[in-house]
Amino acid sequence: MDRQLLERTDTGMPTRAVALDIDKIRADFPALKRRVGDFHLAYLDNTAATMKPRQVIEAISEFYSLRPANVHRGIHLLSEESTDAFEAARAKVATLLNAARADEIVFTRNTTEAINMAAFCLAERLKPGDEVLCTALEHHADLIPWQVLRDRKGIELRFAAVRPDGRLDLEDWYSQLSERTKIAAFAMVSNVSGSENPVAEMCAAVRRVGAISLVDAAQGVPHMPVDVQAIGCDLLACSAYKMLAPFGIGALYGRYSLLEQLPPYQTGGSMISSVSLEQTYFAPPPSRFEAGTPAVGDAVGWAAAIDYLQGVGMQALHERELELSRYLHERLSEVPGLKMLGEYYPGKPGIASFGLDCAHPHDIAQFLNEEGVAVRAGHHCAEPLHRALGFDSTVRASLYLYNTEAEVDQLIHALHTVREIFA
Asked: Which segments of 113-219 are extended strands (E)?
């Protein structure tokens, strides 16, 4: 298979992707050098979290070594440098998403907090009888907040069905979208079936009925170019740790005219413009939604991860992952007794969830670990989707830019060994 070259600066940071040199990329990830017993580590749990390159690790270390001061309001050198680095990270996220302005990016802990923030802040706009339209393939983070909102506000919560092939039933979704819909929340890519939704078309339909769209892009932003202006979404949530960056930080993108209308999610320091004993005036977005001291070091790490990914090239990354996804699904189809949750289709992102007829997913994952293959087993925070497609749980293998065909082969060999042992 053709390998393409990756140009770098003198600092070692990728700059312009003529194409991908997987060996050079893998050399940047210390954890990928680990072994599990006699086996090389094949890390295929990227939907849960990705590995961190040395450039991100070094950026975080440098921040805490040289400028570990709190942000905003400090007038000494370290605080000013820390603030500059924090706001530069916000600008990088905005550029990555092609937001119209940097202050449309609200830092959160993760996608889960971003969606909860959106649900909480939108609650006062709803009245009994209003509808929120969700889907049956959502991660629990994009399902439970709306259930809580339903019980709290007396709204109607509706769900579009999932098809037997693991994809959203768009006909059902469109049939349930109406003028009664006030919020429509849906994933860009399912974290279980790997199916990708036509989010731009869906957001346009939501706009036509005068509702607010929220896109869960946790499995989208790390894997492909994402342009919030082209998508036309009102809100979009994502996490840093799924795209080479540290745990503990994510973002809620919001159209600024909408963010201006929303109340704060939490209150305290940093989110005010003025406070008296009688009255508080809140700061404009994004500060209004970022009470307390933020995760500055994690933001710096996220900025370094974005530099890395943009140096590789998001389109080149996406194309490589689709190529490897096709190979993964072809090889999985060779395993007797393996049942996929959802079907493969050309252009499907690199997520494959499946079961074997001879062993429980947790037993399979435990044995794969002994063969050096890291996967995830369970319902992957998507119990309704599993039930809808006739599964209690699955094994999930998921890909990222540093994975190889050899690691897929290692997975397939281990699955054949599982069958020999358990069958």
From this structure: 131-135, 156-160, 181-187, 212-216
Q: Which residues are catalytic?
A: 381
Please choose, from the candidates 235, 288, 198, 246, the residue with its C-alpha nearest in 3D space to the C-alpha of residue 116: 235
Domains in the chain: ranges and CATH: 6-52+313-422 (3.90.1150.10), 58-310 (3.40.640.10)
Count of Cβ atoms closer than 10 Å to residue 236 Cβ:
30
CA separation for the pair 82, 234 (Å, rounded) = 30
Q: Which stretch of DSSP H or E encloses residue 281?
A: strand 280-282
| pLDDT < 70 regions, the chain | 1-18
Taking the C-alpha atoms of residue 219 and residue 142, their distance in angstroms, rounded to an integer, is 13
Helix (H, G, I), strand (E, B) or coil at 213: strand
The encoded tokens of residue 288 equal 């209004």
Helix 314-332 and helix 405-422, axial crossing angle in degrees, nearest 10: 30
CA distance 144 to 131: 15
CB atoms within 10 A of CB 207: 15
Q: Is 146 helix (H, G, I), strand (E, B) or coil?
A: helix
Q: What is the DSSP string of 328-357?
A: HHHHHTTSTTEEESS---TT--SEEEEEET
Cα separation values, 49 from 137, 231, 242, 319, Å:
20, 25, 5, 20
Helix (H, G, I), strand (E, B) or coil at 181: strand
153-209 pLDDT, tens digit per residue, is: 999 999 999 999 999 999 999 999 999 999 999 999 999 999 999 999 999 999 999
Query: In terms of C-beta density within 10 A (0-12 exposed, 13-18 middle, 19 or more buried), how is residue 102 classed?
Result: middle
